Amino acid sequence: QVQLVESGGGLVQAGASLRLSCATSGLTFSSYIMGWFRQAPGKEREFVAATHWGGGNTYSESVKGRFTISRDDTKNTVYLQMNNLKPEDTAVYYCAADGRVVFISRRPIDYDYWGQGTQVTVSS
User: Fold this and answer.
1) Cα 70 → chain centroid
2) pLDDT, tens digit, for every residue of 43-67?
3) Is the pLDDT of residue 101 over 80?
4) Region 9-32: what's the mean pLDDT?
5) Neighbouring C-beta atoms of residue 119, cutoff 10 Å
6) What average pLDDT is seen over the chain?
7) Do the Cβ atoms of 87 and 124 come closer than 8 Å?
8) Hey, how many other C-beta atoms are within 10 angstroms of the C-beta on 14?
9) What was the pLDDT predicted at 4?
10) Cβ–Cβ under 8 Å, residues 20 and 82
11) What is the pLDDT of residue 54?
């Protein structure tokens, strides 16, 4: 049984930092592309960042330079370091796993497994 469990969300002021974690089990973590998505109320789920098992990360333009994705294959965990947070970053953040082996996708439909989400709220 595959499980993805996010943690680290919270309520912070603009300019603050948070680090999200996503602990996984039941899958061969080192063979999966791992991604972070977010969904704000009334909006579609959007791509934030992803890390390929073979190396290489991809970011959305809205977070590039502020967020950093990383993975620890020894702990089967992916992280999202979020710096200089803005009110528009407020959303539920989800981690996801993609078992394809070719390239990083920004489409939620391409991801096989999802966590339950963690709320990030940034006040102005």
Assistant:
1) 10
2) 999 999 999 988 899 999 999 999 9
3) no
4) 97
5) 12
6) 96
7) yes
8) 13
9) 98
10) yes
11) 85
- CA 37, CA 43: separation in Å to the nearest integer? 12
As given in the structure block, the two tokens for residue 66 are 């502020």
The pLDDT, as a whole number, for residue 100 is 83
**Residue 58 burial (CB count, 10 A):** 18
- What DSSP line would sit under the chain, residue for residue? --EEEEE--EEEETT--EEEEEEEESS-GGGSEEEEEEE-TTS--EEEEEE-TTS-EEE-TTTTTTEEEEEETTTTEEEEEE-S--GGG-EEEEEEEE--SS-----GGG--EE---EEEEEE-
Answer whether residue 89 shows pLDDT above 90. yes
Question: Could you identify the residue written with the tokens 């391409």?
Answer: 110
Q: Return the structure tokens found at 34.
A: 């791992």
User: What does the alpha-carbon distance between residue 5 and residue 23 come to, in Å, rounded to a whole number?
Assistant: 5
Q: Which residues pair with 113 in a beta bridge?
A: 97
